Task: structure prediction
Amino acid sequence: MGLTFAVIAAPITEHEAADAEPRAMVLHNAALKADWVAERHPEAVVLGADTTVFIDHTVLNKPADLTAARAMLKQLSGRTHTVFTGVSVRHRVRGFKHDEGVASQVTFKVLTDEVIDRYFAQINPLDKAGGYGIQSGADLIVAGYEGSLTNIVGLPVEATKQILTRCGLFG
Result:
């Protein structure tokens, strides 16, 4: 979007229960991050975001290890799942506070152990919800998607730009 920004990691404890309602969970976590940073930088426009993968009434956050990552990809294999992202925008001085959720659908190819091994050789699955990132190696695992590609990557740029424009902070 051509904006200058700084990344500030908020040392908050995220809600990450496997049985959480995913829309509420990502909105809650995004708001916690944005509120923490906005409190310390009241003059700044602050954006917080959180993304998760959801299938079979289960939230798939970042896997603990490669065994968990492999299990997640096997669960997603040949199926469609939802990627939810919560976006929170804050500007303390203006008194602006907005939270919005975005959902996209991703369909995986049927994955063999060999394909998963090749995929893991290309990406680090441990820092990605669901154990995968669509921005690298997607040709190995993804059959298709519906909705925002940037949401699946982790920040729905289209929705973020709309939020910033609506509130007069962009455009």
